[in-house]
Design goal:
By secondary structure, the chain is α+β, with helices and mostly antiparallel strands. The chain contains seven helices and four strands; from the N terminus they run αββαααββααα.
Length: 170
Amino acid sequence: MLAVHRGQSPFFMQERMGKDGKPFKIIKIKSMTDTFNEFSNVDERVSKAGVFIRKTKLDELPQLINVLKGEMSIVGPRPLPRNEHIAGSGVLSVTPGMTGQYQIQNTNEISVEDRSKIDMQYIQTITPMNQVERLQYDLSIIAKTPASIIKNWKVSHYRKETSLPRNYDQ
């Protein structure tokens, strides 16, 4: 919001790995300030509005453009930056998605390896399905996504209020 006021783009783009390893620019709404120094950490750079749009996942709505361009689907493994991709994991065998098994399991604080395992469970589940079965499965994930967002929002708010460790709910 402040970016537009300052004449800057309200969008953040970052290279991610798509299907078959093809790179693309993922589009998000900016949630951080552009100003930082070597001592800044991510939490310090997130604006107050950015906290809200991140927790509600509104920052991810521009990814619908990625979906329309064919770079992403609505449901699938989250696209990772090249440096977080685990070679040979199989995650790049499908089109990445805006939401997926990882998101609805409320597991924000896990390793890249564990995230890849969850993504591979999704891929192994959908691979033998016909189109109708896959559509039904993906629709069930889409239906569970809002509840997952709300739960994560409540957990992070509760954690902030009570100073619980970040991984207490796992």
